[in-house]
Design goal:
single chain
Amino acid sequence: MLFDLQKKYILYDGAMGTMLQKAGLKPGEKPDLMNITSPQAVENIHKMYVDAGSDIICTNTLGSNALNLKDTGHTPEEVITAAVEIAKKASAGRAKIALDIGSTGHLLEPYGDLEPEDAYEIFKEMAVAGEKAGADFVAIETMSDVNELKEAMTAVRDNTKLPMLVTMTFEKGGRTFMGVTVADFVKLAEELGAAAIGLNCSLEPPAMEETAKMLFEETSLPVIIKPNAGLPDGESGQYHTGAELFAKQMKPYAEMGAKILGGCCGTTPEYIAALKNELENLS
């Protein structure tokens, strides 16, 4: 494993989309393309997270798949290569680089129109490009369908040597919106060789606690917790949980034994710095 599991905790980064919006990303624009059009802005965001204390930073590639980039004039390999190079430059060896892979945005058959073998090829293209560019890990995140997760993990496992950090997004009550249970998730992720597994997105820290307890009961793998900064205001779009409160709300997860902690939607480098400070005060 490329990170030190003897450490009390390992800090992930926070949201990329939130920061890109602050850097000029307009509604409807594809965040991944800023690796090509605004590389300095992306680099600055990564650097802010590293300066805040992140041990792992995720590339700006959540949606850098063939379906999402269709008709943009850019290939997944082009966008991912640029993204990894930007992250490596920003980290300057101070943080590990995780190739960020999210859902294709399409449901797999029989619920949707995407065939499993096509999903596999899409994820394979992303993973191979990321490894070639020099990523240290793959971060498969914000998944809600266990069948799509299976294709993503299998593609990474079959075609690269990169360790996998894997998170799904659960609603209150311990199921994803596709009905996946924590036990389903753990069984698949462990079988396919995840290095660490956990929860990200959808909920603020306190609302994840019930699902996190289920996760700890099901697995002995290192656990990842990456919640949102509360809920966004309907008018302003601002998230209601501030950095200091978020950090305090994350402390119970570290006390439960979560190894990798960070933030998702609405979190910024300020949140990671506050989290680092809170965790350093743990006994």
